[in-house]
Design a protein that fits this description.
34% of the residues lie in helices and 23% in strands. The protein is an alpha+beta fold.
Length: 358
């Protein structure tokens, strides 16, 4: 078969064709450059000990703090889920970045890890610099709260992959813990106490059900929920527990921790329990926030379903000895984290679930 001639190639062009650019294909490189310039000062505010090179290079460099004798790196990755759908619909973009950071830094915290650095991935069909900068501003705020550096990321503009006005978020955190101080849950025994740290709301889980309930009710985002608008309550960013819990670790011995995300109380706590024990939680020991009361009522959601979908007001759980429980509650309350003694560890009956809510 003969190779096409130049005339053959030229004939494939329409008469009114012109040379194409990346921008013609839907990718605005100038907008991307503008976003990077907007991000740089936000990232700079998160810099901390250990950062050798951050945003701008092909890879970010970080040196593990020398105070660690046997450093073990701990990593976690996550997204924000369908909470983003409400961010698009209600044009609230300043909180989802904090959600993104919280999901990962809270995850690695449960093993006792100090958050070191964070990287994000922002993908869209068409880049809106103002929206993207607002989102990254929330990421930077989350990093400041967690004490970790925002040292890199990726912004991907992919025409036709996402509808106009929509984007997706992912990110990951890397932390470090002394090898001898890794929290595994293996030392948990009957008689230990379960402490619950209050959530700031639904955090970033269960939003497909939340959106379904809102759709069924037909309420507006400004619907009054005991003095606050529904949109403000629903879009409240995820609580970041890193600094107060790391401080608590200097005061007491925490045997196990669980970040209450997808799977709720009944599926996350078992992840840190030895097989032979059971966590018994007492529902009357903490107040169910208004949002969850409303969701349960308007959606007709059964108690068990609430407990395995939502955090129900408890965003983090710690397990420690009965001798240190009161001290832990008082310490965290002083740090501004509302804390409850919500249950205890018992011998696990044969065939029973590892966590039950009474």
């Amino acid at each position: 078969m003969s190779n096409p001639t130049n005339n053959d190639l030229n004939s494939s062009k329409s008469d009114n064709s012109k040379g194409l650019s990346y921008k013609d294909a839907g990718v605005d490189m100038e907008a991307g450059d503008a976003l990077v310039e907007r991000i740089k000062p936000l990232a700079k505010k998160t810099m901390r000990e250990g950062v050798l090179a951050g945003i701008g290079g092909f890879g970010a460099l970080f040196e593990v703090p020398k105070r660690y004798k046997e450093p073990v790196l701990v990593s976690g990755t996550d997204g924000v889920g369908t909470k983003l759908k409400l961010a698009f619909e209600w044009q609230i973009h300043d909180t989802v970045g904090q959600d993104l950071v919280a999901m990962s830094v809270n995850d690695i915290l449960v093993q006792g890890a100090e958050s070191l650095f964070f990287l994000d991935y922002f993908a869209c069909g068409r880049l809106n610099v103002d929206v993207a900068a607002t989102v990254v501003g929330g990421i930077a705020k989350g990093c400041e709260i967690a004490g970790c550096a925002l040292i890199g990321g990726e912004t991907a503009e992919m025409p036709s992959m996402y509808p106009d006005g929509e984007y997706d978020l992912a990110g990951f955190a890397v932390g470090v813990v002394e090898k001898s101080k890794i929290i595994t849950g293996k030392s948990i025994v009957p008689g230990d106490i379960v402490i619950g740290l209050a959530s700031s709301g639904a955090h970033s889980n269960g939003y497909s059900l939340i959106r379904k309930i809102i759709e069924r009710c037909g309420v507006s985002p400004d619907f009054d929920l005991k003095g606050k608008s529904l949109k403000d309550v629903v879009m409240t960013p995820t609580q970041i527990y890193v600094k107060p819990v790391l401080d608590l670790l200097q005061e007491v011995t925490i045997k196990g921790m669980a970040h209450i995300t997808g799977g709720g109380l009944v599926e996350n706590i078992p992840r840190v329990l030895p097989e032979h024990v059971q966590a018994v939680l007492h529902r009357e020991t903490w107040k169910m926030p208004t949002l969850f009361q409303w969701l349960a009522h308007e959606g007709g959601v059964a108690d068990h379903e609430m407990h395995r979908v939502f955090n129900c007001g408890i965003g983090m759980v710690i397990v420690l000895s009965s001798q240190e429980a009161a001290k832990a509650v008082e310490f965290l309350n002083q740090k501004g984290i509302t804390t409850y003694q919500i249950g205890e560890i018992v011998d696990r009956p044969h065939g029973a679930h590892q966590t039950i809510v009474i």
